Amino acid sequence: MTKLVQTEQQDGVAIVTLHNGPVNILSRNLRVALIERIAECAADTSVRAIVLRGAGTVFSSGLDLGELESKAEQPDLAALCSAVEDCTKPVVAALSGLVLGGAAELALAAHARVADKTVRIGFPSFAMGLLPSAGATQRLPRLIGAEHSLMLIRAGHPFPIDAEGVADLVDRTEPEASVEAAITEARRLADHPDQMQRGRDRVDGFADPAAFQAAVSKLRHQMQGRYAPTEAKLIDCVEASMLLPFEAGLAFEQAAAEDCRQSAYSRGLRHAHQAQRRASNFPERLQADPRKIESVGIIGGGVSATGIAALAVLKQHKVVLFERTEEAAAEALSRIKATLRALGAGDRLDDLLGHLTTTVDLRQMSGADMLIEAVAENPTTKAQVFAALDQVARDDAILVSNSALLSIDEIAAATKRPAQVIGMHFHAPVQMTTLAEVIPGAANTAETIVTAADFAAGLGRVVVRCGTGGGTLGEPMLMTLRDAAIFQLQQGISPYDIDRALIDFGLPNGVFKAIDRLGLDVVVKRMHLLHGIKPQSGAIDDLLQRMIAAGYSGQRDGKGFYRWDDHMAAHPDPDIGAVLGRDLNRIRPGGADLAQIQLNCLAALANQGAKLLRSDAALRPSDIDAVMVLGHGFPRYQGGPMKAADMAGLFHILQELRRCTDALPALYAPEPGIAALVRNGEDFDALNRLGRNRRTIPE
């Protein structure tokens, strides 16, 4: 344990260095060692002051996320911060690199802070619904006031130390290493003990009480009508820093932090975070190493193709983009420029464009390591493209289809290299969606799969393995959600009540409004093209076809399930029963049990997810969750459909499936694995383990 904290002394100043891995995690053992070392230094008459620093280039990234999953072991972070703040000798934090979460709280507990220009400070765990628990909501407002404290904590990402409102956190900022400056500051405070101030005693941030309360009230007003329980707790805690004595404020914060940690809201957010980190664990990584991709050819000039091109250029890959005409190539270049600006290229735009060439000659793709097709979802067109690419590509080049719907094996059949043809769908627009799904074909080698995965990850994508053989994981889940909504429509529930229930759950457009926005004809086309999976009820296809024939095609034509005004706002159609057909004339607007609607849809989604696990289309439940959250607007705080089913209780999910099985067995007949998990007292999360501990869905 002593190795976690190392001490050297320079002329009466003890330099205490945190040594705990590359980012100096504030583990329990490190906390114990640091508290002991602070006490030893306080008792040592040869020590006049203390400097805290992190080994390497990072002060500390705070607590490990795993420790945040349960109540902290003692001594907790609050105890460490109190030991630092209560020390009778000056403690100065020498900050460098990352200062995140608990590390920021530790720095705030010091009597002074000296930073170098590399410092980035923030509270990323707030994005997981977690509130600081070691005094940040009490010490921070005392230093920089309410407005900047709320900004820094709730942002969920780190800020450079010289950012507006953040610079006042530190007493000095140095261009380079901060340790020498921290030693100087520590000696100064030792020489002038009357100038040593504890964070609890600072009042700089309270200098303008009216502005302080105005900032609190403004954010509270902005949060009205939004489901943001952690932000509500944060506002209350920051307000309490001015209203309550410090110790009472600390107790208030700790109670609020524990409420947040135990909440379903935070459990969902933490699961979504972990799901993204877990997704990169492909079994093929144990079988092969990835090849390095330096040059990329892209076929197509639409939104998807130009988005991929922009990402590749941003990472300084050599990119050649093919379009059929010079005019189309020029339009594609304009889209790439716009996307690069949206991705923050700034004044680097011209330099980045130096990595890009557009062409109307497919032969210019011949030198590329990887060729990516991103043309329309038409099987004939894609087969023609791949046959042509097979003629011009290098023998070792990997050929990629961006298809979200079609069979990879059927696409690969147009070539003589099926082992090197793989699906990789980049969800668009790339500046808003960070998801890419790798869709292997039956003949793919492990090297092809991991090379595609690493290439997408290198472009800043969260990469999920999709074993459908064609079509993304999200498409069958969306189809199932629509099937469940149509089933409830047939039970006489208004589409507007169904949408209201799902919007309350967190889906931004529900089902029927989402269908209208996409276009009824587009939904039908995608259902018919999707490889391997069809609607589990013919009702949705029949209904949409009938509506299209009657002129109800969705938002672009002003009417679908909703009436759309000139401002593209949706309004319920009072004649919806007649529009949907005589078999649906029992629709009762209003009065529906919204919780029951949510449970029914969630049960159907969980059942479909279990089927994807059974077929090995999905490696683990959390992969389905990552796809739905990142790619399809499923509310992050629900964790994804599989996590939401766990939080609702798989027993209740199973009961709802059984209730509806006779009416629509294709959709609701329970996948056997759900009943097996319930019998074992487990849930889907038991199937999220990695490596040798990985489990498949039980029989």
UniProtKB/TrEMBL annotation:
Pathway membership: Lipid metabolism; fatty acid beta-oxidation
Span of domain 3-hydroxyacyl-CoA dehydrogenase C-terminal: 477-564
Entry keyword set: Fatty acid metabolism, Isomerase, Lipid degradation, Lipid metabolism, Lyase, Multifunctional enzyme, NAD, Oxidoreductase, Peroxisome
Chief location of this protein within or outside the cell: other
InterPro entries per the UniProt record, alphabetical: 3-OHacyl-CoA_DH_NAD-bd, 3HC_DH_C, 6-PGluconate_DH-like_C_sf, ClpP/crotonase-like_dom_sf, Enoyl-CoA_hyd/isom_CS, Enoyl-CoA_hydra/iso, NAD(P)-bd_dom_sf
One Pfam family this sequence matches: 3HCDH
Location of the protein in the cell: Peroxisome
SUPFAM superfamilies named in the record: 6-phosphogluconate dehydrogenase C-terminal domain-like, ClpP/crotonase, NAD(P)-binding Rossmann-fold domains
Name used for this protein in its record: Fatty acid oxidation complex subunit alpha
Species per Swiss-Prot/TrEMBL record: Thalassovita gelatinovora (Thalassobius gelatinovorus)
Gene: fadJ_2
